[in-house]
Design brief:
With 524 residues, the protein is an alpha/beta fold. The chain folds into 3 domains: 152 residues, NusB-like (N-utilizing Substance Protein B Homolog, Chain A), CATH 1.10.940.10; 57 residues, Sun protein, domain 3 (Alpha-Beta Plaits); 270 residues, Vaccinia Virus protein VP39 (Rossmann fold, 3-Layer(aba) Sandwich). It is built from 23 helices and 11 strands. The strands form 2 sheets. The chain has a 7-stranded mixed sheet, sandwiched between helices. Helix 2 packs across helix 6 and helix 2 crosses helix 8. The N and C termini lie far apart (72 Å). It binds S-adenosylmethionine. S-adenosylmethionine (SAM) binds next to helix 16 and strand 6. Keywords: Methyltransferase, RNA-binding, S-adenosyl-L-methionine, Transferase.
Length: 524
Amino acid sequence: MHSSPSPNERTPLHTQMALAAQGLRGVEQGQSAREIVAAWPPSPAKPGAQALLYHTLRHWGQVRALVAQLAQRKPHPQVQALLAVALALLLPQAVSDAPAALPSYQPFTVVDQTVQAVRSHKRLAAQAGFVNACLRRFLREQDRLLALIHTDPAVRWNHPRWWVQALQDDHADWQAILAANNARAPLTLRVNTAQGTRDAYLARLRDAGIEAWPVLEAGIELAKPQDVHTLPGYAQGAFSVQDAAAQLAAPLLLGGLQATPEQQGQPGQMLRVLDACAAPGGKTSHLLEWAASHRLPLDVLALDVDAGRCARITQNLLRLGWGAALEAGKASAKGLEKAAEPSAAPPDSPTAEGMPMDARPAAAAPPTSTTSDTALRAALRVTVQTGDAAQPEAWRPRWLGEHGLLDALLLDAPCSASGIVRRHPDIRWLRRAQDIDALARTQALLLARLWPLLRPGGRLLYCTCSVFHREGREPIRQFLHTHADAALLGDMLQLLPTSGAPSAGDPAGENHDGFFYALLEKKA
Ligand SMILES: C[S@@+](CC[C@H](N)C(=O)[O-])C[C@H]1O[C@@H](n2cnc3c(N)ncnc32)[C@H](O)[C@@H]1O
């Protein structure tokens, strides 16, 4: 019996190639691949075209150089892009490193379908013969052509030259980083432990015939990536998609965080945590989950400068079952506004906010039970706010009161994203060398502006998904140099992307993105 054909098999390759080539031109003009694909209307060609686009981006250094060798004069941009998509499929290594979504095509099929794609484009039809000749020449002379271009680092590593140089400057094992960037990332989940245990979710996956294993405290790595919407419990918020390296943030910040003696004496008192660059909320929800399972009463402000992305934080929190915590956040903000009226208690007095609501997700909250259970249950609330983290005066009064201080602060700063290239193969082509300077300035500014909000004894976790020292250890060293009241707790942690090779003592396990962490404490 034949199984039903996948959309890729039903859609001619040339239709998928034409769409992927259009996407490639979008990336060339500075658009992100994710945005490009999101804007494509649903069609049977879409999944295959996306796989082709991402595959070509992984080989773009190489195929661009090949197009330059094969075409004496620059062809029309759509023809150039089609040649790039075709050559990425014809490369000798394409068979071994193509994503599962791409079937392996015979070279003559690729040539034929590229010619078809050119012919079906009215204005380009005349170039069909030229495209056919280029691709056949590549098949005849590939060894010579590949050897000719191989000495260029942009070709050898499929990264811009400045990027290869920056890694060489920063890391002895720069080649391993580049190799990992070109490998495919696993699908890693973080189980929503406020709803159920990791073991219980592993059992659900097993029942569904999905092979997976545990990573870190609450993570799961799947043997084969698949559409997350098809995994059990997605809509009910059973898990989030989050790389293992990013799953270190919540435990690093909250583990070992102590309430002040005054807070310990106040049974309803919550620890105040700012997630300063929070969208789309991957770490915000982890803070809540971690607090729920460790019974830490937490009041989180999830702040982001981008209103559209703030909406995604709320959406994600609702999917994960944090509706009650969001309601509690709103109620608390109202309380604070009232408290600002002259007759009310001082703004940063805990009593001005009233008793925090029990705000665990509805699915996880046990029914009203014994008093001791109720006392033990973590009280949690979260507020999503659009605002510039570098201008606390605009959002601080409403949430913290005019002079209120934070117990903890997560600064997941905007960065080059150079650590997550294996998931986003377009990033390396979209960034410019000068972007790193601008990002480093923003990171330093955010650190300096947010630090005064922390109480003595409070903690700030600075992180970036970058592997460049300019965005990691350098701003932190500089900050420690200029802030005598800041102490580094433990060592800075520069995680490098790995592709599944066992690495002794790596706190994020064997297969994760690149990430940087530094935990600072304000001296009392
Ligand atoms: C690395 S992403 C954060 C990822 C998020 N923490 C998570 O785990 O899902 C950086 C975020 O910083 C935000 N951002 C950039 N500049 C900002 C600023 N000045 N104030 C607040 N947010 C900012 C961006 O909009 C972006 O959403």
